[in-house]
Amino acid sequence: MDFLFAFRAGCVPSTYINGTVIPLLCRKAGVPAADVRGNITSHRARSTIASQPYNAKEPMTLCELQAWLGHRSPQTTTFYAKISPTTLNKAYDDAGYFARNVRTIEVLFDRDAVTSGEATAGEPWQYYDLGHGLCSYTFFEQCQHRPRPAP
């Protein structure tokens, strides 16, 4: 069997790699041996490397990532495949949910009707821009003249 780190034809224990080799390499590189998530370990490096192709511009699927990592179970792969906030935000934008569910309607006020007192007499003074014209109906989203989205 081939090992990445070997000593006298035997595998170097992960405790030695995580407790000695990685801290030594971190010191030599001038980077901290720990961050907000804890100590830098070989397992954390594997997790980071697995997340990169999952969040790439042309991402690997979970099945491809599972085969690449050599996992038997897809559940194990989902533990490694962390979605970055950038990827999640892009997916949300691509879904168009925010654009479909937030309405920005411009409201125009007839200042003359308000100042002259016509507004208190029941005259229209507030108009909603429907995109093709103005509507004075307060519940503009229920207006019969409002264009309906295509099915």
Q: How would you describe the overall organization of this protein?
A:
- The protein is an alpha+beta fold.
- The protein is 44% helix and 11% strand.
- It contains seven helices and seven strands.
- It has a three-stranded antiparallel β-sheet, with no helix packed on it.
- Helix 3 packs across helix 4 (74-80).
- The two termini are 60 Å apart.
Mind telling me the C-alpha Rg?
A: 30 Å
| Terminal CA distance | 60 Å
Low-confidence stretches: none
**N to C succession of SSEs:** EEHEEHHHHHEHEE
Average pLDDT across residues? Answer: 79
Helical segment count: 7
Largest sheet: 3 strands, antiparallel
Assess the beta-strand content as a share of residues: 5-15%
Helical content stands at 40-55%
Sum up the overall morphology in one term: elongated
Structural class: alpha+beta
